[in-house]
Amino acid sequence: MFIGEVSKKTQLTVKTIRFYEEKGLIPVPLRQGKYRVYTDDHVEILKLISEAKTLGVTLSELKGLIKFKDSKANWSEISEFLVILKERLTEQINATAAKIAKIDSCISIINQQTPLNSPLNERVYDGQKVAITK
């Protein structure tokens, strides 16, 4: 398939596909005359790159990860990387949940100890101060 079709299948611009090719993120496609001919493997790798970028994976990480043998990606290495990425994200979720729990605890302590007439119990709505009652 030609680059226009790859662009439609991957939702990537032609410029982006060529950039990834120049950076070695996808194997150099074979040529048919003056046109590059891409395979389904190219499409799958490009989709993987797009998804990985949404997860915060950098292009340099991807370059170190995506290795080719006979112009095919090493999917077992990619799978191992995704397992590690999942573990990393799970750790971040747990750390964030712990922070949220601490914030909730602080809010609870403040709400229990703040006098009703404190400015901390007032909010401004439409330019008017409104007391928050417990």
Automatic annotation (TrEMBL):
GO MF term (any one): DNA-binding transcription factor activity
- Tell me which UniProt keywords the record has, alphabetically: DNA-binding, Repressor, Transcription, Transcription regulation
Coiled-coil stretches noted in the UniProt entry, renumbered to this chain? none
Q: SUPFAM superfamilies given for it? A: Putative DNA-binding domain (SSF46955)
Matches recorded under InterPro entries: DNA-bd_dom_put_sf, MerR-type_HTH_dom, MerR_fam
Determine if Ligase is one of this entry's keywords.
no
Output the Gene3D superfamilies linked to this UniProt entry.
1.10.1660.10
Where is the HTH merR-type domain positioned along the sequence? 1-68
**What Pfam family does this protein match (any one)?**
MerR_1
Q: Does the keyword DNA-binding apply?
A: yes
- Name of the protein: MerR family transcriptional regulator
